[in-house]
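Anyone able to model this chain together with pyridoxal-5'-phosphate?
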Amino acid sequence: MIPFNKPPYTGNEDQYVMAAMRSHKMSGDGEFTLKCQAWFENKLSCAKALLTPSCTQALEMAAILLDVKEGDEVIMPSFTFVSTANAFVLRGAKIVFVDIRPDTMNINEELIEAAITDKTVAIVVVHYAGVSCEMDTIMDLAKRKNIFVIEDAAQGMLSYYKGRPLGSIGHMAAYSFHETKNYTSGGEGGLLIINDKQFVSRAEIIREKGTNRSQFFRGVIDKYTWVDIGSSYLPGELQAAYLYGQLGRVDEISSARNLIWKTYFEGLKDLAPAFIALPSIPESCVGNAHMFYLKLPDIKTRSDVLNRLSAAKIGAVFHYVPLHSSPAGKELGRFNGADIYTTKDSERLIRLPVWFGMTLAEVQHVIGCVRTAVTETSCTKD
Ligand SMILES: *Cc1c(COP(=O)(O)O)cnc(C)c1O
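re: yes, here you go
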């Protein structure tokens, strides 16, 4: 059995998790939270990095900070995880979906302008599989139209666009440290990245239940009080300590993932384009091997191949059901323009196992099973 995912674990986490347990300070914004935030602020050169309990909650904070309200419109791809949309729907926004590009499965930057109305407040880009959207075009458009760009960089930690790390380009961005991502804070976790300084002080307030407690702890004010809306968006120290252990091993984790990705690509590339389509990484981008996916000719072939891989005890999966065709998406959003690739290509896609600790023998075994499944399925077609 080769599982689809195993949470990343290096052994470097233990010492910090134990230290957090023995520190008598396990609630939010302790030593390890501040250390992780400093690591990201240094890596991303952002105005502020704030750990959150999940990427979903970092996106919710971004929506609050943008003052998104009833009747506003937010543009995003339909091929994404529900949280990308929910964070803005919770503030009363209508979601406007735009088609993707088939080469990267990212929002098609050329189709965004046609979706902008006088109600549009933001574009939320999703860097699918850790491969960047075409950010220069999108940032130029947003500037011209005076709207904000939020990067859902849940999958994009340590990927680059024209030399810039993903998450450092939009006005704000969110990372995920869920156990299925490249780096985890022990199962669940996220990060809000703020590049536009105007959002920093309010972000600290919203994250601290709407109080100015952060300023109080820094000694800026002598008592803290309720000053704004807010919620509890602080992770505990155990989460931060686990993540801190991973941050000390990013080179090891990222080179292991890259080797797995390359091995898949080399082992399958002769099947393209006759049997499968492989992911492509534009020249301006450096990926992070978050995910290895391939596309089959159609949905029928995909189910056959997935059945064969499941019989071979290989944890291959597919995602996402496009949001505009889901029950909530139909009610809360609309698709602007034609759906040429979103539905068609989402129905063709499968993801193969990629996790830290997976051996190259296991990768070769998956490659062998995929080759058999893909070629045999194609032979039995009528
Ligand atoms: C994983 C993921 C999320 C949600 O992350 P959580 O940390 O589980 O909340 C959001 N958007 C995308 C694109 C993701 O892949």
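Residues 131 and 218 are 38 Å apart (CA to CA).
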